[in-house]
Amino acid sequence: MRIMMIATAVAFAATPALAQQNGLINIDLSNLSALEKAEIAKDINVDVSNIPVNVQVPVSVAAAICNVPVNVLAQNKSKGDTACAPTAGSTALNSAIQKQNKKQR
């Protein structure tokens, strides 16, 4: 799968609901452009309407997707910050989206 650049800034967000998860970071996909969502949908062979607003991944995967060091994400997670925005598309992001879609069926 091709790597695509996503023009979103790294952002951290915390909400009580997100802070209760175990070992996962939420990748916030809400700021992706329609083109970026269409590219992901094409790569994983789903309709663009099946691209979620966020997807949960382990800290190490989130670090790669959001271009944030693992230790920074882990430290923020311990403070309740459990989200980041992607800076680059990847097979890891696409795989996480596919897994989430399968669970929702």
Topology (elements, then pairings):
Layout: H1 16-19, E1 24-28, H2 34-44, E2 54-58, H3 59-66, H4 70-78, E3 83-84, H5 91-104
Parallel strand pairs: 1-3
Antiparallel strand pairs: 1-2
How would you characterize this protein structure?
With 105 residues, the chain is an alpha+beta fold. The chain has one domain (16-104). Helices cover 44% and strands 11% of the residues. The protein has helices spanning 16-19, 34-44, 59-66, 70-78, 91-104, and strands at 24-28, 54-58, 83-84. The protein has a three-stranded mixed β-sheet with strand order 2-1-3. The longest helix is centred in the C-terminal third of the chain and has 14 residues, at 91-104. It is globular, with a radius of gyration of 13 Å. The two termini are 24 Å apart.
Number of helices, counting only DSSP H or I runs of 4 residues or more: 5
SS elements, strand count: 3
CA-atom Rg in angstroms: 13 Å
Q: From the structure provided, what is the oligomeric state, counting identical versus distinct chains?
A: single chain
Shape: globular
Mean pLDDT: 77
Low-confidence stretches: 1-21
Largest sheet: 3 strands, mixed
* Order of neighbouring strands in the sheet with most strands: 2-1-3
| Strand/helix succession | HEHEHHEH
Classify the beta-strand content into a percent band: 5-15%
- The span between the termini is 24 Å
SSE-based structural type = alpha+beta
Helix content: 40-55%
* Number of self-contained structural domains: 1
Task: Summarize this structure briefly.
Helices cover 44% and strands 11% of the residues. The protein is an alpha+beta fold.
